[in-house]
Amino acid sequence: MSRSLSIYVPHQYVSNLVALLHPLTIAQPILYTFGLSIWSAAPELAIQELGYPEGAIETKVVNLVEGANFVPDFLKINPKGTLPTLTADGKAYTSTAEVTAYLVEHAPKKVARGTAFIDKIHEDRYDPNAPLLLTRSEEELKSSASGFPFTFVQNRQNSLEKHAQTPEGAAYKELYESKIAVNGGILAIYKGEVSEDVKHGFFKQSTAHWDTIVGFVLNDLPATLPENGFLGGATPGEDDFHLAAWLARVAFLCGGTADKDGYKALEKETKQPVPTKVAAYWVAWSERPGWQKVYSGGLH
What we know:
By secondary structure, the protein is mainly alpha-helical. The protein is built from 13 helices and four strands. The protein starts with 10 loop residues before the first helix and ends in a 6-residue tail after the last helix. This is GST N-terminal domain-containing protein.
């Protein structure tokens, strides 16, 4: 008859072995986000809709209003200084598409994967961030120069200039110089430090950008959206997380709310009723628990 062999290992050795192996365990994913960040809402919606348990994804806030995304310690994680950013499995995912794709791929709940629509919605011509700072008239310029847009741009400039002068920031010199120039240009417009030609050129650029966004709402979206439900089918898919975040920001800029009638604020810019498919899409999202949680404090 064979015997099993038992080996006694002292408890302290077991403890030491566990301590030794602990650093090799896979770290919890960390999502770097901010409440007012339009594109951070895409992975936030994904986390809510994809069945991730509470606390499965750690969240760290990077205050964009204070320019915290330009601190060298954050740039070590994401050299572009953008949100959202995700660290997982020893890697950093530094674009909205990469972050959301990771969450979809590893989610407890499987949904329709993304398509080329994601690349389209992220094209510069449809940028939903720009209108927050753009102005099309003297009236809009006065409002921006005395309100949140000015504070936001000034704080960014302060942060960029501060960290560009530090030894830690030397590795990001090119980023700082580029951002200081672009951001500083907008700040100069707000401060009235540019010529009339430059100012009116800014008005023209702002008007063209808004026209492109309105065209997307009135023409592109109705041609893309289904009669009911979502791009991903009966429930939101990967494409939908991006579109929902985009649409919420545009509605926010128009004074919209997160409820089922919030889309009507878009008519401030469309100057006509919102297309039926777009309205239905908004209503479908407004009923989702994920939408209600992410936008519980209002659109952004």
